[in-house]
C-alpha cells in the first residue's frame, strides 16, 4: 500500500517576499511568519539593528532571509533594491509595506499645524507610491503577485484629534483599491489590512508608545492602560485589540494562493471597532 504524506504544504512555499519596514513590530512579525511558511524573505528598513534582530530570529529557524538598509523615501534607492532582489531571486512575488511614520494624534484643528497635518499624509502615501512602483514591474504575469498594505480604523472613524491620521488612513485604502484595478491585468492582487492599535506592539518598540502618549496622558493613563482598558478596547465588539500574531497570520493567508480571488478590498482586523 502506498502511503501519502499528510504534512501540510507551507502557504508561501517558493515565494519571494520583500517587507518594507521589516524591522518594525508589524513588519518583523510578518517577516517571521512568511519565513515559517516557506517564503524567501527580504527585509528592508532604515535601522540596521532592528533588521538584524528580525533576521537572527528567522535564521535561527533555518529560514532564508536577507536584509538591506534602505530609506523608503529615496525612490532611486528603493528601485535599485527591488531590481537587485529580482535579479537574485528571479521575481518578486509578494511585497508588504509596513512602514511607520510618526505623526500627531490627539491635537484638534485649532492647535494643529499644517506641517503636523501633512506629515502622515505625505509620509505614508509617498512610501506606498515609491515601494509599489518599484516592485510592480517585477511581479505578476506567469507568477501571481501580491501587494499588501496596512491602514487603520482612522479611515472610517468620526472622532476629533486625528485629522492627519484619518485622512492618511483613508488615502492608503483608496490607493490600494485603485492600484488593484491597475495591476489586475498583470496578475497582481492588492489587498489592504486594517488592524486597530496593536495591543502587544509597545513591548516590541517605541512607535506605539509615542503615538498614543498624548491621548493616554489626557486620559490619565499609561499607554498600556490606555490600549488595554481604555475607550479603545471598549469601542470594539470583541473588547480586545488585535495581536501582532493575528496580523501576521492574516497577512500570510492573504499573500498565499488560497486567497487568490481577493483583491481591491480591505481586510478588517479592528476587533469590531468598525463593522463593514
UniProtKB/TrEMBL annotation:
UniProt cross-references to InterPro entries, sorted A to Z: NAD(P)-bd_dom_sf (IPR036291), SDR_fam (IPR002347)
Keywords of this entry: Oxidoreductase
One Pfam family, short name: adh_short_C2
Membrane-crossing residue ranges in chain numbering: none
Sample GO molecular function, one term: oxidoreductase activity
Protein family membership: Belongs to the short-chain dehydrogenases/reductases (SDR) family.
Keyword Ion transport attached: no
Cross-referenced Gene3D superfamilies: NAD(P)-binding Rossmann-like Domain
Protein name: NAD(P)-dependent dehydrogenase (Short-subunit alcohol dehydrogenase family)
Amino acid at each position: 500500500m502506498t502511503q501519502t504524506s499528510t504534512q501540510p504544504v507551507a502557504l508561501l512555499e517558493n515565494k519571494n517576499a520583500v517587507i518594507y519596514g521589516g524591522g518594525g513590530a508589524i513588519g518583523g512579525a510578518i517577516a517571521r511568519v512568511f519565513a515559517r511558511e516557506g517564503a524567501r524573505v527580504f527585509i528592508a528598513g532604515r535601522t540596521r539593528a532592528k533588521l538584524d534582530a528580525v533576521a537572527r530570529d528567522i535564521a535561527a529557524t533555518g529560514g532564508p532571509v536577507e536584509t538591506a538598509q534602505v530609506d523608503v523615501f529615496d525612490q532611486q534607492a528603493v528601485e535599485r533594491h527591488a531590481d537587485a532582489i529580482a535579479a537574485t531571486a528571479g521575481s518578486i512575488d509578494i511585497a508588504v509595506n509596513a512602514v511607520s511614520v510618526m505623526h500627531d494624534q490627539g491635537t484638534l484643528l485649532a492647535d494643529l499645524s499644517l506641517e503636523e497635518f501633512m506629515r502622515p499624509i505625505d509620509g505614508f502615501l509617498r512610501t506606498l507610491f515609491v515601494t509599489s512602483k518599484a516592485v510592480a514591474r517585477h511581479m505578476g504575469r506567469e507568477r501571481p503577485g501580491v501587494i499588501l498594505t496596512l491602514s487603520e480604523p482612522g479611515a472610517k472613524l468620526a472622532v476629533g484629534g486625528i485629522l492627519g491620521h484619518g485622512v492618511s488612513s483613508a488615502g492608503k485604502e483608496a490607493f490600494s483599491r485603485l492600484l488593484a484595478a491597475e495591476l489586475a491585468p498583470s496578475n497582481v492582487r492588492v489587498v489592504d489590512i486594517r488592524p486597530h492599535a496593536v495591543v502587544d506592539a509597545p513591548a516590541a518598540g517605541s512607535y506605539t508608545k509615542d503615538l498614543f502618549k498624548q491621548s493616554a496622558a489626557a486620559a490619565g493613563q499609561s499607554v498600556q492602560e490606555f490600549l488595554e482598558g481604555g475607550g479603545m478596547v471598549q469601542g470594539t465588539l470583541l473588547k480586545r485589540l488585535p495581536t501582532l500574531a493575528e496580523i501576521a497570520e492574516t497577512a500570510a493567508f492573504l499573500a498565499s494562493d488560497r486567497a487568490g480571488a481577493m483583491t481591491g478590498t480591505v481586510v478588517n482586523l479592528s476587533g469590531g471597532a468598525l463593522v463593514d
